[in-house]
Amino acid sequence: LKLADLREQLLDELGSQLDLDNITEEELIQHAVELREKFWQAGGRTSFHSYKDIYLSRILLELGHKRFPTDFTLIDELVETIQSAWPQRTYRITDSRKYSNRKRNLSAGMMHLDVTTMEELLRLRQKQFNMIQNQAKKGRMPEFKDLLRVYDLAYLYRYTPSANREKAKEFLKWLLDNTN
């Protein structure tokens, strides 16, 4: 089942386990990270039984993002959770022909972008970039984590369907111009 089909049921389950109205940012992040770790321990994307935990983690982080929209760590954890279970590229068989690959035959296919996932990640990283810029204007020096966030944004701008390589270069140039 997909997350959209289970969202309400899983939200109810989270509500019965946690006081969602009074949970702190730190508690929310800690619980979501624990759920994501359970996903990996249960086999990650290779196990049907692991998905409930990653769905719960994502729902919890999305709720947290609505309550704490400027928390860098929360956004980072939401991005990591999305990247964990919703691959940006998937392999799809495009025809029934087979071709040889030294040791085994593979069905002819190709990699496809998951546009929805890419656009969602782009939106989150763009938001963080805007926050980084605003804080830099107030004197905050970008940190190493900001480099990773901006690099991720540049990658997403380069490879999403709305690809804009020049925009990607602008983000990286801004980062270089605003760090020591």
Element layout with pairings:
Blueprint: H1 3-17, H2 25-41, H3 51-67, H4 72-85, E1 89-101, E2 104-113, H5 115-137, H6 144-159, H7 165-177
Antiparallel strand pairs: 1-2
Helix pairs in contact: 1-3, 2-3, 2-4, 3-4, 4-5, 5-6, 6-7
Give an overview of the whole structure.
This protein is of the alpha+beta class. The protein has seven helices and two strands; from the N terminus they run H-H-H-H-E-E-H-H-H. The protein has helices spanning 3-17, 25-41, 51-67, 72-85, 115-137, 144-159, 165-177, and strands at residues 89-101, 104-113. It has a two-stranded antiparallel sheet. A hairpin with a 2-residue loop joins strand 1 (89-101) and strand 2. The N and C termini lie far apart (48 Å).
> Overall pLDDT, averaged?
85
Largest sheet: 2 strands, antiparallel
H/E series, N to C?
HHHHEEHHH
- Give me the number of helical elements: 7
The termini sit apart by 48 Å
Low-confidence stretches: 96-108
Q: Shape, please?
A: globular
How would you classify the helix and strand content by structural class? alpha+beta
Helix content: 55-70%
Give me the count of strands: 2
What Rg is obtained from the alpha carbons, in whole angstroms?
19 Å
- Proportion in β-strands: 5-15%
